[in-house]
Write a structure and sequence with these properties.
With 255 residues, the protein is an alpha/beta fold. It has 2 domains: 151 residues, Rossmann fold (3-Layer(aba) Sandwich), CATH 3.40.50; 97 residues, ProC-like, C-terminal domain (N-(1-d-carboxylethyl)-l-norvaline Dehydrogenase, domain 2, Orthogonal Bundle). The protein has an 8-stranded mixed beta sheet with strand order 3-2-1-4-5-6-7-8. The longest helix has 31 residues. It starts with a strand and ends with a helix.
């Protein structure tokens, strides 16, 4: 397919590279920032424009920008009956209803940066379409990229996005908190990596619900109080510890 990417950030970059590798033609990159847009265009052999009036014809237009910019970018695009999608995990596809008669969602469920290489073959791609023909074409596009393609409703996608924030964004924040605590006391975060990697590896075979360990899971109040005392000078970490411990204890009591 001939594809135009609107955006040049993390998701736009990885999608452009991944779709080109899958055999599609990235005909154009649109971006308001010349430097980032031109760099991505060169990487995928596409033309570049920062002027929406210069957008070329394509089979699919992928809007891959920050959620709060989707509507603004979409307002620049008049695609007739060509397919227009955005890549948000939470925004409605109806933001695109005035862009084209055919529109939808193309949401790769993976954390991405420009610096990392993404192997899309095992990345779940969530799709929605405003009609069956659009959905079928998006499914074809998704399957060319990944072995995991999922037709979802808007509500399902939003719940998946919420769960993904817990699973990825919040856990990474907790890694950062752990690193800060260790650094403040002259210790290296490397010491935790075997524990982290083992925890992730365990998820290959077991539900996280049955893997839960730690003082809150075993209701070890003395250890919890000792940890809270250690964190007395770090009120934000202390409150986070308390909230998570209470959540673990409450969850375990239901089992």
């Amino acid at each position: 397919m001939n594809i135009t990417i609107l955006g040049a950030g993390n998701v736009a970059t990885q999608l452009a590279l991944g779709l080109r590798k899958a055999g599609h033609s990235i005909v154009q990159i649109f971006n308001r920032s010349d430097n980032a847009g031109q760099e991505l265009a060169r990487a995928v052999g596409a033309s570049f424009t920062s002027d929406a009036r210069s957008l070329q014809n394509a089979d699919v237009y992928i809007i891959a920008v920050k959620d709060d910019a989707i509507a603004d970018v979409a307002s620049l695009l008049k695609a007739g009956d060509k397919i227009v999608v955005h890549t948000s995990g939470t925004k409605t596809k109806d933001l695109l209803s005035f862009c084209s008669a055919n529109y939808g969602i193309f949401y790769p469920l993976q954390t991405m940066t420009k610096l990392s290489k993404v192997d899309f073959s095992n990345v779940p791609v969530l799709i929605e379409g405003n009609n069956e023909a659009t959905l079928q074409l998006l499914e074809t596009l998704a399957r060319s990229l990944s072995k995991q393609t999922h037709k979802v409703t808007e509500e399902q996608r939003q719940w998946i996005h919420v769960a993904a924030v817990f699973a990825n964004n919040f856990t990474n924040h907790l890694f950062a908190v752990s690193e800060e605590i260790l650094t403040m006391h002259g210790l290296d975060f490397e010491i935790l990596k075997p524990l982290i990697f083992r925890s992730i590896e365990n998820l290959r075979e077991h539900s996280p619900a049955v893997l839960q360990t730690g003082p809150a899971a075993r209701r070890d109040k003395l250890t919890i109080e000792r940890h809270l005392a250690l964190l007395e000078q770090h009120k934000n970490f202390q409150e986070l510890y308390r909230l998570l411990s209470d959540s673990i204890t409450a969850t375990q009591s239901k089992r």
